[in-house]
């Protein structure tokens, strides 16, 4: 059977060494990224400008998971992007090899084990569980039964002061129009069992804080899930002031990061009240608002933090102006200069929106320690100098103490000023990604010479006659004025 690649229209996939078992692929092809636990052989592979995740499995599972991930992506569910399925693999000697599922590596994401050590704060684990519970709720709302909920089957990205979770393994999943309470309950039961087992393994290897109880954490997911599910789906009966209660319900859902698309309102049989039930609830309320105002595509908690800073900027600097105008001013005068201030060799540590969030946190720490407001350029310079280079550790402020950093503020203020300089139109703009735009050429832009196709006036016959008469008059005057005459 010849090699067959089904999926993305990327001819470059044919150049990968599919005739070799994935475990023996050459090192120059492999990207050194942290991997989670998996029952299959999984490798991160350099491909073009990006990184792919390749998993060996049987053809039926590969095709099924590919279709499942494509359907989840269509529903805008948090998951990795499916790229292709590779079948018909054979060694040079003609021996058959396993099929492969190819997905896109989720940038800036980490498996949960890469986040764990005894040096981590206790709250990190609860934030991971909270992120996983939001992921499960979103998948269940979309009608997806996971069948193997666990920390190992998800990836986590920093999302402001929280985490966001993404599904990475969908081979046990199944899509339905709507999940029954029994299906949801069984998914949560599996989740509790898997999470407790994973934490006990960490405890056995002494990679878990001694103060963490695996059973308490394992049962936390179900409690958080029930709380969020009730807020998104429960029906309530309203006897008076219906518009106020509807607006209040929408506001509470927005605060949770969800947007209420449709709602059912049904009058009770006796006509004395109205039953209210959310029908279509979509996640990403804040991220969609930020996208609409600025074009920035970030995660939900990051969007919430950026919007708070945008609203504060609007109140102080552009009071009374249109929201869209204020957003443009904030983007060009605050957000983009902060992002461009990060040196190129440090841009791979965190997402741009996460950098901005942490600069805001750092600014708050500096202002509290110094007892005075700290300008954004100064806070950015201090963060880039003292915090970002050591960002491998999970602490808010690393390295030197706040007192030492605060002592630098006068020098940093003198060096960087209190306001960002006007934006250079030729400067590289890395707002939507680090290093994706080539630097401008150092030479001056070429000058375009324009030539007219019209006939010059002097080339016309009458003009030539006038020109000759003028020349003769000049010669005659020159002869009269000559000193030799």
Write out key terms for the chains shown.
single chain; 485 residues; Phosphorylase Kinase, domain 1; Transferase(Phosphotransferase), domain 1; 4 domains; 5-stranded antiparallel beta sheet; 3-stranded antiparallel beta sheet; 42% helix; globular
Description of the molecule:
By secondary structure, this protein is α+β, with helices and mostly antiparallel strands. It has four domains: 4-107, 2-Layer Sandwich (Phosphorylase Kinase, domain 1), CATH 3.30.200; 108-233, Transferase(Phosphotransferase), domain 1 (Orthogonal Bundle), CATH 1.10.510; 234-283; 293-416, no CATH class. It is built from 13 helices and 13 strands. A five-stranded antiparallel β-sheet has the order 1-4-5-3-2, with helices on one face. A three-stranded antiparallel β-sheet has the order 6-8-9. α6 (285-294) packs across α7. The longest helix has 24 residues, at 181-204. It is globular. The chain starts with a strand and ends in a 5-residue tail after the last helix. Residues 393-398, 428-433 and 435-440 have low confidence and may be disordered.
Provide the low-confidence segments as ranges. 393-398, 428-433, 435-440
The CATH architecture category of the largest domain equals Orthogonal Bundle
**Overall outline:** globular
Specify the helix fraction band.
40-55%
The major beta sheet can be summarized as: 5 strands, antiparallel
> Strand fraction band?
5-15%
| Class by alpha and beta content | alpha+beta
In round numbers, the mean pLDDT is 80
Order of helices and strands: EEEHEEEHEEEEHHEHEEHHHHHHHH
* Quaternary structure annotation: single chain
How many E strands?
A: 13
The helix count comes to 13
Cross-sheet strand order for the largest sheet: 1-4-5-3-2
First-residue to last-residue Cα separation: 108 Å
CATH top-level class of the largest domain: Mainly Alpha
Rg over CA atoms, rounded to whole Å, is 32 Å
Q: Give the count of structural domains.
A: 4
């Amino acid at each position: 059977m010849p090699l067959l690649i089904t999926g993305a229209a990327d001819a470059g996939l044919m150049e990968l060494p599919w005739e070799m078992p994935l475990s023996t692929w050459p090192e120059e092809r492999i990207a050194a990224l942290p991997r989670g636990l998996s029952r299959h052989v999984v490798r991160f592979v350099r491909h073009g400008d990006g990184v792919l995740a390749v998993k060996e499995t049987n053809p039926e599972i590969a095709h099924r998971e590919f279709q499942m991930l494509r359907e989840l992506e269509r529903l805008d569910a948090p998951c990795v992007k499916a790229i292709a399925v590779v079948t018909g693999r054979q060694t040079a000697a003609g021996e058959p090899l396993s099929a492969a599922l190819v997905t896109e590596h989720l940038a800036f994401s980490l498996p949960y084990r890469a986040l764990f050590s005894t040096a981590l704060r206790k709250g990190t684990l609860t934030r991971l569980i909270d992120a996983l519970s939001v992921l499960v709720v979103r998948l269940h709302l979309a009608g997806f039964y996971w069948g193997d909920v666990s920390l190992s089957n998800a990836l986590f990205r920093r999302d402001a002061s929280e985490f966001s979770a993404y599904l990475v393994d969908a081979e046990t999943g199944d899509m339905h129009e709507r999940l029954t309470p029994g299906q949801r309950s069984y998914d949560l039961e599996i989740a509790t069992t898997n999470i407790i087992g994973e934490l006990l393994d960490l405890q056995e290897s002494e990679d878990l804080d001694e103060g963490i109880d695996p059973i308490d954490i394992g049962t936390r997911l179900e409690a958080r899930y029930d709380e969020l599910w009730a807020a998104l789906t429960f029906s309530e009966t309203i006897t008076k002031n219906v518009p106020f209660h509807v607006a209040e319900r929408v506001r509470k859902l927005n605060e949770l990061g969800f947007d209420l698309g449709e709602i059912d309102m049904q009058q009770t049989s006796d006509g004395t009240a109205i039953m209210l039930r959310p029908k279509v609830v979509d996640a990403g309320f804040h991220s969609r608002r930020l996208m609409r105002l600025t074009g920035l595509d970030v995660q939900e908690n990051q969007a919430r933090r950026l919007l708070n800073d945008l609203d504060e900027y609007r109140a102080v600097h552009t009071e009374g102006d249109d929201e869209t105008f204020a957003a443009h001013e904030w983007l060009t005068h605050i957000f983009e200069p902060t992002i461009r201030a990060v040196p190129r060799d440090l841009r791979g540590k965190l997402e741009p929106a996460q950098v901005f969030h942490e600069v805001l946190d750092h600014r708050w720490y500096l202002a509290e320690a110094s007892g005075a407001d700290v300008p954004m350029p100064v806070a950015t310079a201090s963060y880039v100098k003292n915090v970002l280079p050591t960002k491998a550790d999970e602490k808010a402020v690393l390295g030197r103490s706040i007192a030492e950093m605060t002592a630098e503020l006068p020098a940093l203020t003198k060096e960087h000023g209190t306001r960002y300089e006007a934006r250079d139109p030729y400067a590289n703009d890395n707002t939507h990604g680090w290093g994706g735009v080539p630097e401008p050429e150092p030479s001056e832009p070429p000058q375009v010479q324009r030539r007219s196709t019209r006939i010059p006036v002097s080339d016309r016959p009458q003009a030539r006659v006038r020109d000759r008469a003028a020349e003769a008059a000049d010669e005659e005057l020159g002869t009269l004025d000559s000193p030799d005459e």
